[in-house]
Sequence to fold (445 residues):
Amino acid sequence: MKTSGSQFFRSATIGIVVVGLVIFALSGYMQPLFRAAISPLVSAQTWLSSRFMVVYEFVTVPRDIASLRSQNQALKSEVAGLQTQIIELEQQLREAQVLYALLGFARGRPESQYVAAAVIGRDPSPFLHYVIIDHGSDHGLRHGMPVITDQGLVGRIDALTATAARVQLITDPGSTVNVRLQSTRTEAQITGSVTGEIELGLVSQDTTLLPGEIVLTSGLGGGYPADLLVGQVISVRSSGTNLFQSASIQSVVDFGSLQAVLVITNFRPVDISPLIPTNP
Amino acid sequence: MGSLAAFPVLIITLMVQLAIISRLPLLHGTADLMLLVLVAWALQERVRTAWLWTLLGGIMVTLVSGLPFYMPIFGYLIATGIALLLRRQVWQTQLLAMFVTTFSTTLIYHGLSLAVLQITGRGLPIGDSLTLVTLPSALINLMLALPVYTLITDLAHWIYPAEIA
Fold:
């Protein structure tokens, strides 16, 4: 009986202490004690976690590097592909711009019929100024047809096959074009040269020839249609002892970067050579 | 095999010449890739088809060039003749022969072109043609001589492998 009474007293004491501790804990009085008790545990947990992460990274990171490398390689190849695509699109855009310009020119002159062609090569001989275009007799081109761009006169077809043609540029040493000066309507002649410069000649001394004068085709001789823009006078050479004046012409066409041209297909050159009198 | 190889090699050479080389002038001169290929081919020891290649190359250039039809054929035949002469009799160092042949045949080929163009009525000024076209062309040809010779040598070794005793 005495034992059971002391056990009850002990249990009641423990219960009261526990309830007291709970009440203290809930009321916040036990925080310093808890902090002091938990802090080493947290430190130990942190240490353990950090060591584990080191080991984890040691095991897993090499695999990540490999995957990153492969991803990097894939992205690099994708970037290279996109850059190639950009270059191709820029090239297509440039070609489209050239073709739009030619189309605009053709629409502005509906009286002529045109065939657009791309320049695919240049003559192997540096003494000659010819270009090869990708259209030939199958596309309606014929010998002697004038070739232009939206800027002005380029030359005329010199030879052709079914699918390609050779164009003699007006800068070729063998090229001669009858022209007239826009302001004075004076007839003259331009010839090419081995350096690609265009020389204006056969201008009489009476004519006022000044730099800046616009030069157009005259249509004389039947080789080219009239009023095609050729270029502009840049320097005049006149001497009282010479029969004619001469001048250098700056062509409106940039022959160095010629990409596409128009061939006037409804103009047929006239061969007047049988009409030229020969010496007996 | 050497004869058959002429077609693809010379066609590719002509295409590169028309599309690229002729658009890269130095002053007003441009390289003549066909001349370099034909000369380099003729200088290879085991090659026996140099004249055939020259004829084919000349005909191909004739088809696209504004020069009179006989001029490229005749000019390249002379160049091949000079190359074969140097290969057989004078030079032991083929690379040196390549440079000498390139320079001399460029001058000869351009001299012939000038003469033919003068005869056919194009009055080309000799001085300007020499200083602005021929000499720059010779310089570019000399610059391209080494890579072309190397490529053609590899091609010749591939077509005519050395016989093992």
User: Anything to note?
Assistant: The interface with chain A takes residues 14-15, 17-19, 21-23, 25, 28-30, 32, 34, 61, 64-67, 72, 110, 113-114, 117, 121-125, 128-129, 132-133, 137 of chain B (CB under 8 Å). The domain at 2-159 of chain B is CATH 1.10.1760 (Arp2/3 complex 21 kDa subunit ARPC3). The helical segments of chain B are 2-19, 33-42, 50-64, 70-90, 94-119, 126-159. Chain B has a mean pLDDT of 89.
